[in-house]
Amino acid sequence: MRYALLLKELIKDTDPQTYPYTDELKDGLDAITRVNERLNEVLRKIENEHVVVD
To answer: Can you name one GO molecular function term for this protein (predicted)?
Structure first.
C-alpha cells in the first residue's frame, strides 16, 4: 500500500508537459494496485480459513 500512495503523490506532483514518463507512472500505479488487491484477497482467505479451523 505504501508504494501505491507514493506513486499517487508522484503522479499528482509530476507535470506531464515536462516529464515524458507520466503514462508509465500511471501503469505502475495500476500494477501495484492489482498486486495489493490480490494480496488482500489471499490474506483474507487465509484469515477465513483460520476462523473456520478455530
So the answer is: guanyl-nucleotide exchange factor activity
